[in-house]
Amino acid sequence: PFPCFLQELTTVRVQDPRVQNEGSWNSYVDYKIFLHTNSKAFTAKTSCVRRRYREFVWLRRQLQKNAGLVPVPELPGKSAFFVGSTDEFIERRRQGLQHFLER
Fold it and tell me: Where is coiled-coil annotated (predicted)?
């Protein structure tokens, strides 16, 4: 008989985009980042924060500084000329941020 080892799993979800300061010149969208893990490396098994796009840009830069030869995933584009509705753009960005964190 082989010992059973519990596989460590970590799931991350980008959810619930919210427009902050809507209608003002400094409006932005933030996203709920939910993390769940059974890894012993984490003291908290679940955590949840809200982050905006520019904080993902900061994170990517930090990863690039320390990545060496490991490629850092791309972020979704920051297009001011998106064709379609704002809701479509926000959803497409949410999916891109989700993909970035999964990688």
Answer: none
Q: For 64-78, b where at least 16 C-beta lie within 10 A, e where not — what string?
A: eeeeeeeebeebbee
User: Could you give phi then psi for residue 51, rounded to 5 degrees?
Assistant: -140, 150
Distance CA 1, CA 85 (A): 58
Q: Is residue 2 part of a domain?
A: no
Q: Supply the CATH number for residue 60's domain.
A: 3.30.1520.10
Q: Is residue 3 part of a domain?
A: no
Which tens digit of pLDDT belongs to each residue from 37-57?
998 888 889 999 999 999 999
Give the distance from CA 85 to its chain's centroid: 22
Domain count, the chain: 1
pLDDT, tens only, 4-34: 667 888 899 999 999 998 888 888 899 999 9
